[in-house]
Amino acid sequence: MPTELVTAHAPEGSTPPGPERPEDRAAGLRRARVWRRRRSKLWTYTGLIAGSVIVLFPVYVLVVDSLLQPLQLLSDPPAFVPTHPAFHNFSDAIAQYGFGHDLINSAVQTGIIVSAQLVTSVLAAYAFVFLRFPLRRSLFLVVLGTIMIPFEITVAANQTTIVDLHWEGTFLGLTAPFLATGFGIFLMRQAFMQIPRELREAAVIDGYGPMRFLWRIAIPLARPVIAALAVFSFLGAWNQYLWPAIQANYNPGLKTATIGIASLAQSSATVGTYLAASIMSLAPLVLLLILFRKNLIRSLTAGAVK
Amino acid sequence: MTTASGPGRVAEVAPTTVAKPRRKSRRFSKSKEMGLAYLLLLPALAVFGVFTFFPFVENFNLAAHMKGPYPTSPNPYVGTSHFFQVIKSSIFLDSLRSTAIFVAIAVPLGLFLGLALAVFANQKLRGSAFFQVVFSSTTITSVAVAAVVFETILDPRSGLMQWLGVHTAPGIQLSPGWALYAIAGISAWQFMGFSFIIMIAGLQSLPEEVIEAARMDGASSFRVFWRVIVPLMSPTIFFGGVVGTIVALQSFGAIDIIIGNTNTTFTRTNVLINYIYDLIVYDRQFGTAACVAIALFLITLLVTVAQFRVLERRVHYAN
Amino acid sequence: MAQVRFDNVTKTFGDVRAIDELSMTIDDGEFLVLLGPSGCGKTTALRTVAGLEEVTDGTLYIGEDVVNDVAPRDRDIAMVFQSYALYPHLTVRRNIEFPLHQRGFDKKERTRRVLEAAATLELTELLGRKPGQLSGGQRQRVALARAIVRQPQVFLMDEPLSNLDALLRLQTRADIVAMQRRLGTTVLYVTHDQVEAMTMGDRIAVLNAGRLQQIGPPIELYERPVNTYVATFLGNPGMCLAQGRVVAGSAMLGDAKLGDVGVADGPVTIGARPEALALSAAGIPAKALFIEVLGADVLVLCELATGERFMARQPLDAPRPKPDEPVHLSLIDKPGALHLFDVGTGVRMEAGG
Predict the structure, then answer these.
(1) Fewest CB atoms less than 10 Å from the CB: which of B10, B267, C65, C329?
(2) From CA C268, how far away is CA C245, in angstroms rounded?
(3) Residues 195-214 of A with CB under 8 A from B
(4) Which DSSP string do the residues of A60-94 spell out, in sequence order?
(5) Does residue B11 carry a pLDDT above 50?
(6) Domain total for chain A?
């Protein structure tokens, strides 16, 4: 056979002798990159799923077990699907253990606190931003200072104050310490400071006094932040534990939902019942989270990431 | 008066220049402005005065007395000796130890998980929005709910832990060591949501070019994470750490619910804030409670300052 | 009567005198431009007329009344801000209507005025939109409409054109002037752009560090600037200055004689505008630095032996020097080409040339 023919065909499976052809190299790199990206995507999805499991497993247990019949809870292997959904857990919580009353208490308490915090924060922030008066800077520092003072150091004295005022075990006593918040004032101040000064001046020239300006211009323009503040206040108030626990000791009828869950768990109620109660108390918050997700994140991080 | 003329306009022009009283109002006078300002501030300041500042000061007053539990008990002044007495007591020291363990576990764990999840969820993948909602959802759980659910999970009677392959001794409440760690884990789980939110915000504000440059330099993802992302995220991590510690030192509900107060182990697992609660509600020892509160406050202050001193040096601010 | 009068008005912020004993009268129906660089006090002066700043000393009159202590809303003025200050959450219609709410006009009257103002500024189709959906020029017109809807005695304008691009600025300039002529309202207009000042104002008031430098019709400030500050500020490019001497009744720059002047001998600051200088065979020796071809003109930047710089204007077809080429500059033979200023104070010296 002529030698040229022999050398023209490389044996199968081996790379041609000599330098790599550029097209092959490019194809190889592209393949590697696709693999790399796929692999990193795999990692990411794994991480995401693992994280979801960690976060959602308790939630899953919560939902499932609230619907399990009492006996199913003790089964082995544990039941993961409510085959006979025990809706009566929910009604039991309300009817038998008075949890509905607790929910109402929570609603009232939270309603009072949220409204009060919105009003006090908006008014105070407005004064700090748009009005001039002596001690303005120092008073604002004072307000900031309240954020620094942790609740535990005021608990004892607050309790004695409430008792002295005979407010213990009342809604007044329950909500009074939380009617204003330095954080809220700070947040609203940031929002009001975004309003250009010229807008205020134009309104002055157009004849608008401070109160009308607040109501017609400042508040409408700061609406997203006000909404975010309302959500934060709601979350904080609804999930409070320490103070409502103290107050409930004086008046068990004042139990809020969070305390109610705790007392259910320590009473003779079944697991299903108090898990059902937990779900009921979580419901409004879940709703809030879904509705206000973007707003929450944006406002929380407005101050955090400098 | 030379304004634009037109039918019917002349009639308005004259009244506006002649009949309108000119010196009607002074400019919004300084004292009126001041008065309005104080009026607007009054509600907030009143609340702060009565329920934040006064108690803060009064706490010291309470701490300096040793009032008996009944309204009619004697209230002798004991001064600072009370404080020192309290912080030397064994109950206090046990509490302190528990608190330290609790915080040392819960905060870093929560931060790390939040950061890891944020890194994953920040990738531009399909459905990442869903994951973001999921991961931030632990912020809405109240302490009660979290405690109750985890209690169910950890309760050996429910068999869930066995199913997962973990063996817990019967009645986890009865094994003091585990209880504290379990509760720290629960708190980390709760804290994870908040940590996730701030980490994701932090990640999104990172300069993309730096990370891309690192990738182009051939660093593996792992390397990129530890050598580039974490240092760049250090301000956020630092912020999360500070806030998390402060919150953790005050976190009360989980222990109250899970442990209850019917076990002797309770006092062993008791963190400082629970101790305060007990003193107020059960023993009605307001003075002692005040002392512990002062101690807790000082510890919080110390830890926060220490964090600033030690860690802030390591924080790289992007600018 | 919509005359505005400053009578020794001073405004201080702490130790800083933003306006220093300003006295001037703006006639009814006049378009007066307050001109100067940032920080010269022109905006502060405007704001005192608006009532947004309180007068520290002196008296301010609008019409016959002393308005020092009168609230802005009672001064019968309207203001157009640099950033327009439109209410972002209100529609154009409600933005324009806004100033009328507090004046006691009924709904019918308010609507009529709004529509009239909108028509004047060609905003009728945009009434339902919000400011966020408008272009810069449209927003500016809304701001103007909001100002005219109350038919005030005085318009105050704070650099309203500075946020517009160059072409829009030109058009709007003409529109504003035309509108003012039609309405006959007194206008106080603040700007740092001397081209705007020259083209729009009936008179220009130049301010520096809170003090009035000169007030008068544009051409007067241009041809007879009262000091070096005004001389270099007006004109595009401004007047060039160099240190020279008067020797035996002649103004000299180095060895070059520029002209006979009726001024005592001694050192003097010499000023000449580019259009008064020409490249010539003999005259002031200089070095050509930079040649700018501006379409209709050619401007040659030259450096004198002393390092000072003069600009000369050449017609398009004249031979152009190259950079670093030595040239000579001479004054053209026209009255008013040469300006003399006192070396110490910068004040104008009456020259003969």
Answers:
(1) B10
(2) 5
(3) 209-210
(4) HHHHHHHTS-GGGGG-SSPP-S-SS--THHHHHHH
(5) no
(6) 2
3-state secondary structure of C349: strand
Which residue did the predictor score with more confidence, B165 or B286? B286
CB A113 within 8 A of CB A229: no
Residue with tokens 């077809």: C317
Cα distance from A304 to chain B (closest Cα, Å)? 7
- Cα distances from B226 to residues B79, B119, B210, B216, C125, in angstroms, run 51, 12, 14, 16, 58
**Are the C-beta atoms of residues C203 and C215 closer than 8 Å to each other?**
yes
In a domain? residue A193: yes
Phi, psi of C68 (to 5 degrees): -50, -40
Contact yes or no for A210 and B280 at CB 8 A: no
Residue type, A166: H
- Report the complex ipTM: 0.76
Maximum distance among all alpha carbons in chain A? Answer: 115
> What does DSSP assign to residue B139?
G
Q: Show the tokens assigned to C251.
A: 């103004």
Q: Provide, as residue numbers in chain B, all residues whose Cβ is less than 8 Å from the Cβ of A234.
A: none
C contacts of B2 (beta carbons < 8 Å): 28-29, 184
Q: Which pLDDT tens digit goes with each residue over A241-278?
A: 889 988 988 888 888 888 888 888 777 777 778 888 88
CB C22 within 8 A of CB C73: no
Region for C13 from its dihedrals, namely left if φ exceeds 0, alpha if ψ lies in -120 to 50, beta otherwise: beta
> Based on the domain organization, do A92 and A61 belong to the same domain?
no
The answer, yes or no, to whether the previous bond of B235 is cis (omega within 30 of 0) is no
Find the helix packing angle between B176-204 and B143-154, rounded to 10°. 130
Contacting residues for A76 by C-beta, under 8 A, at least 6 apart: B159, B162
Least CB–CB distance from A199: residue in C77, C78, C87: C87
* Full domain range(s) for residue A30: 22-66
Question: Is pLDDT above 90 for C158?
Answer: yes
pTM: 0.76
Chain A touching partners, 3 or more CB pairs below 8 A: B, C
The single-letter code of the amino acid at B148 is V
Cα gap A78→A65, rounded to integer Å:
10
Query: Looking at the complex, does the CB of residue C108 fall below 8 Å from at least one CB of chain B?
Result: no
* A271, amino acid identity: V
Which region among A163-167, B67-71, C158-162, C212-216 has the lowest average model confidence (pLDDT)? Answer: B67-71
Domain C4-226 has CATH 3.30.720.120: no
| Residue B23 with chain C: CB contacts under 8 Å | 65, 69-70, 74
Interface residue C85 vs chain A (CB under 8 A): yes
**C-alpha to C-alpha distance for B70 and A215, rounded to whole angstroms:** 50
Residue C95 CB neighbour total at 10 angstroms: 27
Whether A155 and chain B come into contact, CB under 8 Å, resolves to yes
Tell me which architecture the domain covering B83-312 has in CATH.
Answer: Orthogonal Bundle (1.10)
Is-contact A167 B51, C-beta < 8 A? no
Q: Which fold has domain C237-349?
A: OB fold (Dihydrolipoamide Acetyltransferase, E2P) (2.40.50)
Q: Which residue type, as a one-letter code, is found at position C104?
A: G
CB contact burial A263-296 (16+ within 10 A = b; e otherwise): bbbeeebbbbbbbbbbbbbbebbeebbeebbeeb
- Is A203 within the bounds of a domain? yes
